[in-house]
Amino acid sequence: MVRCGAVAGLLALVSAAQAIQRHPLPISELAKQITSRDAHGTLSTRDVDLQALYPEHNLSTPIDHFHNDSSYEPHSSGTFNLRYWFDAQYYKPGGPVIVLAGGETSGSDRLPFLQKGIVYQLAKATNGLGVILEHRYYGKSIPVPDFSTENLRFLTTDQALADTAYFAQNVKFAGLDDVDLSPETTPWIAYGGSYAGAFVAFLRVLYPDVYYGAISSSGVPEAIWDYWKYFEAAATYGPPACVETTQKLTHIIDNILIGKADTDYVGKLKAAFGLPNVTYDNDFASAINGGIYGLQSLNWDPTQSSNSFFVYCSNVSSDSVIYPATEARRASVEELIKVGGYEDELDTLANRFLNYIGYVNLTSVSRCSGSQDACYSTHDSDFYAQDDITQSWRLWQYQVCTQWGYLQTGSGVPKDQLPLISRTIDVDYSALICREAFNLTKPADVEYINRLGGYNISYPRLAFIDGEWDPWRAAGVHAIGLPERTSTLSEPYILIDRAVHHWDENGLFPNETTPDLPPPPVADAQKQIATFVQGWVQEFTGKY
Known about the structure:
544 residues, alpha/beta, 8-stranded mixed sheet, two-stranded parallel ribbon, 10 strands, globular
């Protein structure tokens, strides 16, 4: 049995943030997404009480909405159960239906937003009905008997958007069966965060007569194959000493992995980190970069947040040795610094390199028992060949490989800049799963996604809410370098100061709030959201 904590803490928190996944993931982390045959979409222990509070419902939905599109051949005339939850406690006649798009996870993971987050807040503010709608293929909304590549052909953003429109046009909510909540008589407002943020933006553009408005939180409407700018936020807003040190240490590592590839120095480098038995150099480089990834796991809600990014930064920018056991590796580290081209900065970088090694050992190496390749490798053809219904790791990876991309590389960084992760983490390495799991050898068709506007997407009653420090900001309308937009009631454009990934989505019970929680920028953004949604509802009421 192999127990592996490699990047486990980070990945758990990324999962908790319910955001687009780090890519690539080692096999050991993908394996954690395998579900038991009877456990699809089950609630976590933390949220088990929500299952009783919000019973699940299902709507029979077509598997294939596009019988004229040859990409879905062979077509299907079947249906599947699309799962949803709702809360009508605040609903009054004339109120809207607020639909949170579940995105690339089980819809049950989104129930806290119905209980006390953005859906709760908006339903209360507008006398609306709140809904969590699961995305096809995720959780229990599974339209196929297995996850073979052929049976994943219906896992496209277009099909899921059509599901969401079909839902609004056909659902009847228990207890409100006689109430006309059709889009013709009721304003339907969609909300989504991250991938789901882009999703609801597209929903508003493609189905404007069904969804009267949409709120894209940390949305990523620009699909990007080589998303090297994932680390732009860390480079721009991270502590300068941390950023500079990480760049220099990564440069040393690359000068050895790439520049000294056929020498003994590669083995010495891996041994210095306590990872001598990681076979592939790119797997090794991936195994040691978890610290800089930690920014995405920061959240204003302390129950959902990790300070790992700043712990890492304080470690690698410290001029004192934090982990005494690493002193035994000083001579080796000093040799590696010299070979890596930074002999003139030896006095500064030696202790910081030792702290980097200590941090990686504490957070990753020490948690791996058994084969190091089993903990850290992305190379395993037998694993990738698995495609039964429990292999839920295949779902988002398929969307990455076919339509969305977001391969987070070091190689894509311009040559005149120093990357924060190794250049050995390139497109070829990151796309290994596409080739091995799905036999896809070409880049994702990001142009198809971007036909809807990409960075330039806009539409009446389509709001964009982003975090200043969000690693995914570079794929959205608030990307650094894009022209500033004017925020209006019809097209709100809000950048939350010092915020990360869809921070406006979380909420607290009234007895949990303090003067600092939610932070004033988040509380202000949530108030603005409630205000413009109220305005949209009033506009609808006045028109119809």
